[in-house]
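Hi support team,

I submitted a single chain yesterday and got back a structure, but I'm not sure I'm reading the token output correctly. Could someone confirm the output below corresponds to the sequence I sent? I've pasted both exactly as they appear in my results page.

Thanks,
R.
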Amino acid sequence: MLFVAVPAFIVPLVSSYQKLLNVAFFLGIAGSSFAVGVGFVSRWFPPEQQGGVLGIYGLGNIGQSAAVFLGPVLAVVVDWQNIFRGAAVLLTAWGMAFFALARNAPKAVRPASFGETSLWPLA
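Hi R., thanks for writing in. Yes, this is the structure output for that exact sequence:
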């Protein structure tokens, strides 16, 4: 979150399409946060509960849908540059909160290794 706050803040300052593409590349790194979060969240729960927990975690992506639908409306009200600046501020605040409050899982849930599982269902 802290890493992506920087390009979010820079977007209103770019002066060419090429520079916008460069900044957009770094904004795109935010998409990897979902994959990282899945691993982070799933370690807190036993395998039989992970499906429900990851479903709840996935609901957090509703922010992306809200941004698509509400972003243009909000941009008319507060100006599009302020949307990016506000996002940078929120990313910084949530990043600092995560850094201060997040903890590692209490115990590692180790998946079965290749040797412990059978490739044949009837074996």
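A quick pointer for reading it: Residues 2-105 form one domain. Let us know if anything else looks off.

Best,
Support desk
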